UniProtKB/TrEMBL annotation:
Residue numbers binding substrate: S55, D142, N154
Name of the gene this protein is made from: proB
UniProt keyword annotations, A-Z: Amino-acid biosynthesis, ATP-binding, Cytoplasm, Kinase, Nucleotide-binding, Proline biosynthesis, Transferase
Superkingdom, natural source: Bacteria
HAMAP family: ProB
Organismal lineage: Bacteria, Pseudomonadati, Thermodesulfobacteriota, Desulfuromonadia, Geobacterales
UniProt-recorded name of the protein: Glutamate 5-kinase
Native species: Geotalea uraniireducens
């Protein structure tokens, strides 16, 4: 199974964490970046396409600015990222040049991928770079992001890039051998889990934070990323990026790290984008009848099942669908604005035109635009 997944992966997203690039040293570990470049060169020589999602800008910038520990404020973090990002990309440029390879920098915000046109544009750029034999190196555009438009962590970003690029495998390189049954910092006897068929709530509880001055999210965000990739039908392999030749060994068949298998019933690319890339701008609370109908795959959300509207949004926006007890059931793109839904909620679809004076369709969310969570 593992060999089959790795052999079939022609296009791979490799996420490299700050803990790998900086380790415990201050600034970037250039020797390690050199080793990684050699490994990527070998993967490419074997006919694979590689897209890198790299952290490390803040870690590199901290050193330049002489900041010890985590940057104290958001502007300090953004300043560190601005200075660190150019150092980071230069380090990759130099390391890849040794193997006659070129890299390109791509900085993204969540807004870029949430906008369908920008998403498709970014996709076309990625394809073109790969056609030119260039390795794209992606990071969050830390300098300009604020809460609403940020990915927040690069684990999450790497899962979304996997979708963007339609890659067949996500590799997460971190500073630990893989996913353990408990956080090894507090449970030294915890065992490594080599194969995860499906991410359970118990595993999510076993995932701890980063606990370092440079990492963001720790195992929590890595599990979330593996889950997202899995919903897109893509496996995630988590490896220790600080181990020399770890990629080469893993692709040669060694049973290293943790492999998260993809889900069998995976979402298509557009539905994955609705569920994970778009930021919901409102909420529809539905009744028990609608909850039951939605749970049966393939049904649209009709006005009759909606009991409350929260937030202000236009037609076409992404909203959460929640049950009366607050459980999030689904997400989808609405066919009507919040003001229109306020008027037609609780009514039969046949009454929409009489109430509004016009009608876009029978559904508040058509099943093609609806994703169950
Ligand atoms: N169950 C777990 N298994 C493995 N590592 C865990 C677990 N829970 C928490 N961690 C921590 O997650 C850290 C890696 O995440 P992070 O510091 O964000 O690194 P990165 O910079 O690679 O994203 C590990 O060093 C480890 O201390
Ligand atoms: N964009 C930030 C990285 C944020 C992040 O998620 O870090 P990490 O947990 O080390 O992957 C940077 O370049 O410093």
């Amino acid at each position: 199974m593992r060999a089959q997944i790795l052999n079939k992966a022609k296009r791979i997203v490799i996420k490299i964490g700050s803990r790998v690039l900086a380790g415990d040293v201050n600034g970037l570990d250039r020797e390690l970046i050199g080793r990684l470049a050699a490994e990527v060169a070998a993967l490419r020589a074997a006919g694979r396409e590689v897209i890198i999602v790299s952290s490390g800008a803040v870690a590199a910038g901290r050193k330049e600015l002489g900041i010890a520990g985590r940057p104290k404020s958001i502007p300090q973090k953004q300043a560190a990222a601005a200075i660190g990002q150019s150092h980071l990309i230069r380090a990759y440029e130099e390391a890849f040049a040794v193997f006659g390879l070129r890299v390109a920098q791509i900085l993204l915000t969540r807004d870029d991928l949430a906008n369908r046109r920008r998403f498709l544009n970014a996709r076309a750029t990625l394809d073109t770079l790969l056609d030119f034999g260039v390795t794209p190196i992606i990071n969050e555009n830390d300098t300009v992001v604020f809460e609403e438009i940020k990915f927040g962590d690069n684990d999450n970003l790497s899962a979304l890039v996997t979708n963007l690029a339609e890659a067949q495998l996500l590799v997460i390189l971190t500073d630990i051998d893989g996913f353990y049954e408990a956080d090894p910092r507090t449970n030294p006897d915890a065992r490594l889990i080599h194969l995860v068929k499906s991410i359970t709530r118990e595993m999510e509880r076993a995932a701890g934070g980063s606990g370092s001055a440079v990492g963001t999210g720790g195992m929590v965000t890595k599990l979330a990323a593996a889950k997202k990739a899995g919903q897109f039908g893509v496996a995630t392999l988590m490896l220790n990026g600080r181990c020399p030749a770890v990629l080469t060994a893993a692709f040669a068949g060694e049973d290293l790290g943790t492999l998260f298998l993809p889900e069998e019933a995976s979402l298509n690319r557009r539905k994955h984008w609705i569920a994970h890339t778009l930021k919901p701008s409102g909420k529809l609370v539905v009744d028990e009848g609608a909850r039951t109908v939605l749970a049966r795959q393939g049904k649209s959300l009709l006005p009759s099942g909606v009991v409350r509207v929260e937030g202000k949004f236009d037609r076409g926006a992404c909203v959460r669908i929640v049950a009366a007890d607050g459980t999030e059931l689904a997400r989808g793109l609405v066919g009507y604005s919040h003001a229109e839904i306020e008027l037609i909620r609780g009514h039969r679809s046949g009454e929409i035109e009489a109430i509004l004076g016009y009608k876009y369709g029978d559904e508040i969310i058509h099943r093609d635009n609806l994703v169950l969570l």
